[in-house]
Each structure stands twice: as structure tokens, then as C-alpha cells.
Amino acid sequence: MSDHHCTSCSPTSPRTKHHTSKYIRVSCRQTLYPKLCQKSLAKYATEIKTSPKLLATTALLVTFNTTRSTSKKLRKLSVNRALKLKPGEIQALLECVEEVSDSVYELRKSIKELNDSRKGPEFELRMSDVQTWVSAALTDDDTCMDDFTTRGRVKVLVRRLVVRVARLTSIALAFINNYAAV
């Protein structure tokens, strides 16, 4: 994928919108979750244009915002007395909150590093750091799900929230890997 833009299009022309939407569509097809990818990134097509860096950065920001929101929801669940959680469920939920909070931290570091990345002598090291942190965030999401050994409505609810985060993280990592290789 190149970093060139449609030279015959103005930013507001239908052709540009189609061109940039096509870039998102084609890029998303290369991920494990193309439908979720398109759904979460389509509204940013005009900002992303055909830039691998902007695509990676935007996917990472969407992932960060969703992960942060999920962390807050999990925290609220862990103190919700109406759920009448069993001690094992509370413990698993608290561990999950910690794992997802770690993801938020790793994604925040990744955003800063990716925003500061420029082609040059430091580029490979910076991208390696970003790839490591985003991979760690994905591992944290998986670990969160592993914490739930019992079945029940809490596990189902947590799973629904965390699977979405893990899939978005996977999408962001795919685009980061692509940008690092450009």
C-alpha cells in the first residue's frame, strides 16, 4: 500500500470519499476481522486518506478508546452489588480489570510512540516498541478471559466486552505491522 493520494480529487469530492473508503475496505480485508474493521474505521476514511501511518494510528486510537471504556465498565461491574457475584467471580473480574487496565497503559504508550515515529535511524526501534506493547495488550485481553474458570452470566458479559477489545487490538496490530514494513 502506498502513501500517495488521489491527485485529481478535491478533499470533498465523491471520488475522494470513494477512493479513501476503498482504501479502508481493501486494508480491512487483510485483517482477521474485516467487518469489525470496516465498521470501526469507515467514518475516519477522509482523515486516513490512503496513509498507512494514519490507518495504524486511527485503528490504535479506536482500540484505545474502546479498551478504556471497557475498563470502566468492568470496574463498575466489579462493585455492582445487584449482580450478587460469587467470590470467585469477583476475584476473576478484579483480575480482568487489572489486565484491561494494563492494556490501556500499553496502548497509551503505543499511541505516543507511533505519533512520534518518523522514518529514520530510530524508526525500527520505535516500531518494535509499539509492536511489543500492542502485542502485550492483546495478551492481557486473552489473560482476562482465562481468569474466568466458571460459567455464568458475568463471564458471558465480560467475554462480549473483552472479545471486542481483543479483535480491535488485533486489527490495530495488523496495521501497525504493515506500517512498520513500509
From TrEMBL:
<dbReference type="Pfam" id="PF04043">
    <property type="entry name" value="PMEI"/>
</dbReference>
<dbReference type="GO" id="GO:0004857">
    <property type="term" value="F:enzyme inhibitor activity"/>
</dbReference>
<dbReference type="InterPro" id="IPR051955">
    <property type="entry name" value="PME_Inhibitor"/>
</dbReference>
<dbReference type="InterPro" id="IPR035513">
    <property type="entry name" value="Invertase/methylesterase_inhib"/>
</dbReference>
<protein>
    <submittedName>
        <fullName>Pectinesterase inhibitor 10</fullName>
    </submittedName>
</protein>
<dbReference type="InterPro" id="IPR006501">
    <property type="entry name" value="Pectinesterase_inhib_dom"/>
</dbReference>
<keyword id="KW-0732">Signal</keyword>
<feature type="domain" description="Pectinesterase inhibitor">
    <location>
        <begin position="19"/>
        <end position="175"/>
    </location>
</feature>
